[in-house]
Amino acid sequence: MPSPAEIVRALAERTAFAAPPRGTGRYRYLRTSGWARHTARTTDGRVLSASTRFFAREDWIAADGSGRLLVTQGEAVVRPSGYFPPGGLLGDFVDASDLASATAALRRRVSPSRAGKAFSSVWLTQVVPPDLQRLLLRWLAEHPGLVVEDADLPGVVVSVPDAAWLRRRLLVFDSRTGMLLETRDVEEGGATVSGCTRWLEAGYTDSTESRPAEAS
Question: Which of 148, 144, 159, 156 is nearest to 193 (CA)?
Answer without folding.
Answer: 159
